[in-house]
Amino acid sequence: MGSAKHERMGALKECSVRVMDDSYEVKDVLKSIINDIGNGKILSCVKSSGNWIITLRNKDDADLLIETGIVINDSTCNVYGVSRSFLTVSLFGVPSYIDDDELSEKLLEFGCKLKGKWHHNTYPEFPNIENGIRYIRLELPTECKSLPYAMTLNGVHMRLKHNGQTRVCNLCLENDHIMRNCPKYVCRECNSQGHWEAKCPQVRCFKCNNLGHKSFNCPQAGDDNNDHHGNGDPATGRHISPPKHANVQHKDQPKDEAMDQLPQTKGSAIETNETKRSKTRIQRQLNG
């Protein structure tokens, strides 16, 4: 007896949907649903915890409302399942040469269950030209709270968005790590799992010629700052750059020749501070 009752309650739950906005009047909600599926198909409409919970007589009508949503007072309203987490997922930046089936296959790899077909948005001024936005209704995998913020297909990076979205790994959809730290990530250098390219044990650094890291992670990168041509500071090991204008007068160099080496300003009588300082240094040496 208890088992039969449990099965009946489960069946009613499968036939129930949620409208997540209790600001609508009950008459408006019921009129909208009746216009979509017909009269005599609603068992109950209950206001609960900020939602309208509507139980229908059959599951097909519930699935139809979840897939298409309803229009209440000229406003489109999403309808959600009570026991399932159906979402409207939008993709941005989708070129027209990417087929809907390719997008579906990518979402199926995540374990999603697709409901209905893809919808293509167009420009309001040009209703026959797509704007690269597509959306579809789907159910997330069990124990999965979100899809990643983006996905790549055929070299095209597309933004992915849905309600309640959080940061997750692009490969396994877990929320405790990012893709390059995912155990499922395959290194493109050695085709092994457990590390990413920059930490690959088989990659070779062109700076130190050692294995296990790339040049931007080289532990000897700091040595490049040392001077190897006699211009290093022996105390600090730092490179000493020559002055921008080596305007020191050489021995036996005439004064006029030394002054001629100074940078000249063309078309202007205004001397730069650097020129003034250089002249002052030379004048002091000549007078010294």
UniProtKB/TrEMBL annotation:
Top-level taxon in the UniProt lineage: Eukaryota
Keywords assigned by UniProt, alphabetized: Metal-binding, Zinc, Zinc-finger
Single GO MF annotation: RNA binding
Natural source organism: Stichopus japonicus (Sea cucumber)
Feature: compositional bias, Basic and acidic residues: 249-258
Annotated protein name in UniProt: CCHC-type domain-containing protein
GO terms for biological process, alphabetical: activation of innate immune response
Region (Disordered): 223-288
Composition bias type Polar residues, residue spans: 262-272
Domain (CCHC-type) ranges: 204-220
One Pfam match: zf-CCHC
